[in-house]
Amino acid sequence: MVLVFIRLIIGPTLPDRVVALELLASIIVGMIGAYAIYTDTSSFIDVAIVAALTAFLAAIGFARFLERGGPRND
Q1: Which one of 10, 16, 17, 28 has the fewest CB atoms closer than 10 angstroms to its CB?
Q2: Are 66 and 17 in contact (CB under 8 A)?
Q3: Is residue 73 part of a domain?
Q4: pLDDT averaged per 10 residues, the chain (length 74)
């Protein structure tokens, strides 16, 4: 997890940071799912689904941003 934060902070390119953010989101969703199983609370599964959907939509947004040229220096 520390390596993910290092890549997120000092990643050389924006796509590296996006991949690190996606990995971090996947780890968090997995941890929420494991906690839901451990505590036998089904409402945490809903939280995990919402977190996964949010991470997916963020990845789509970043991909569209990069496809259109990324940050511009006008």
Answers
A1: 10
A2: no
A3: no
A4: 90 88 95 95 93 94 85 63
Residue with the two structure tokens 């996964």: 52
CA gap 56, 35 in Å, rounded: 21
pLDDT of residue 73: 62
46 domain-assigned: yes
**Residue 61 in 3-state DSSP?**
helix
Buried b (16+ CB within 10 A) or exposed e, 42-72: eebeeebeebbeebeeeeeebeeeeeeeeee
For residue 72, being part of any structural domain is answered with: no
User: Cα dihedral sign for 11, 63, 65, 48?
Assistant: negative
In a domain, 29, yes or no: yes
The tokens for 4 are 């993910």
